[in-house]
Amino acid sequence: MHLPPAVTSAIFTHLYTAICATLRIREENRAEVDAVHARGERLIFCLWHDELFSLIPVARHLRVVSIVSPSKDGDTLARILESKHVGAVRGSSTRGGVRALLSLARMMTHEQVHACITVDGPAGPRHQSKEGPFFLANRTNARIMPVRIYAKHALRCPTWDRFQVPLPFSRVVIRFGHAWDEGEKEVPDIKEDTLARAQARLEKELHELAVGLIPGVTA
């Protein structure tokens, strides 16, 4: 028997909330996030798709909007985000992606929201940055903020990204990097060579953030 989507989403939302309530989260360099926010500047939080689970609870006091796939799984995620006061615009690299980015850019410009982008989503390749965050940075002058997340005890789902679901009561470390300079300075245009440099830099910084945080990651 198939449950109605609304019922399925409600079940997952309650389960998600219950797990998050038990997590022992420590944030590193959160002070820089709060300082940038206090100055009225906007951030684009950039992380890998498999590490998203534990980031949502720390959006406290911030207005954050994310791009979510228009798939059925995306419907569930959008409802979970909404329950945590995180906005969602729908789109992917194959369905409405440009429209979603433009919609998010308008929200960032006119409503002063921050963005959260899983930079290798929604379908990989795993841990390879796509172009979306740099398009946003160029268009909104927001600042890229790399983020890595490590859960000491987590289940790995059999998905393309090996999505991590922290086990209840796990210790979780969320390590924020350093915000890039304003978007138009770091990404002055969206030409191929500019984007390639930005992608390489972001991938490098995300890797470096994991050193000393995630076992097995070395410089």
Can you give the mean pLDDT?
90
**CATH homologous superfamily classification:** Glycerol-3-phosphate (1)-acyltransferase
How many H/I helical runs? Answer: 7
The largest β sheet comes out as: 7 strands, mixed
CA radius of gyration: 17 Å
Q: SSE string, helix = H, strand = E?
A: HEHEEHEHEHEEEEHH
Coarse shape = globular
CATH architectural designation: 3-Layer(aba) Sandwich
Order of neighbouring strands in the sheet with most strands: 1-9-6-2-5-3-4
Beta-strand proportion:
15-25%
Class from secondary-structure proportions: alpha/beta
Spans of at least 5 consecutive residues with low confidence: none
The level-1 CATH class: Alpha Beta
Number of strands: 9
Q: Please bin the fraction of helical residues.
A: 25-40%
Q: What is the total number of structural domains?
A: 1
Q: The CATH topology, please?
A: Glycerol-3-phosphate (1)-acyltransferase
Distance between the termini: 50 Å
